[in-house]
Amino acid sequence: QVLLQQWGAGLLKPSETLSLTCAASGGSFSGYYWSWIRQPPGKGLEWIGEINHRGITNYNPSLKSRVTISIDTSNNQFSLNVKSVTAADTAVYYCASGGHIVDPTTGWFDPWGQGTLVTVSS
Amino acid sequence: QSVLTQPPSASGTPGQRVTISCSGSSSNIGRKTVNWYQQFPGTAPKVLMHSNDRRPSGVPDRFSASKSGTSASLAISGLQSEDEAIYYCSAWDDSLNGWVFGGGTKLAVL
User: Fold this and answer.
1) Is the distance from CB of A89 to CB of A80 less than 8 angstroms?
2) Cβ–Cβ under 8 Å, residues A14 and A87
3) Taking a C-beta distance cutoff of 8 angstroms, is the pair A7, A79 a contact?
4) Which of A108, A110, A116 to probe by mutation at the B interface, max B CB count within 10 Å?
5) Angstroms from A122 CA to nearest CA on chain B
6) Residue A61 near residue A42 (C-beta atoms within 8 A)
7) What is the block-wise mean pLDDT of chain B (110 residues), using blocks of 10 residues?
């Protein structure tokens, strides 16, 4: 059973870069796509993007210009960078295991990381 | 504005059966499987149903789901107070080349 543990800075100023990392343990790292999902306070879920163990990525078109997802297969970790953040990027950010490596459009998000609240404020 | 449309709220009394709808389009629900997530305040979402109608181990059989055309629904029978949560539907969208979610339905057990 895969376990996800995430970490990163929780308070940023506008224009800074958001950086979060998620470590997977206890299961196959190469069998799935690994996603980042965010949830603004009191609002719904928004998928940010995903990566597989070969570094192939898919991004939400609305965030693509500011987002980079990278992977470190030697440590079973993947990371999220969002540049030029604004208050609108304030949210709880989750990492999650997602679509199957053979077909990333299938599958489901399970498990999820514990979530990291990122606040953007001057 | 979410790509998948859910009612913002639903309610029922203990023991009742409630359904939550999720409406999409031909680029998502119409051609891809639907998943449902349950979220309690302050916690990460948890998969409740996947692949349209499959229940992960540990999820009570009071929960069921179905899909027809470009819509899907989640049903909860024998409603219990512990079912008070927010429920999200999700599917892959071929036009956006990514995952999309519904806006979430807050379920109240009266």
Assistant:
1) no
2) yes
3) no
4) A108
5) 25
6) no
7) 96 98 98 98 98 96 98 98 98 97 98
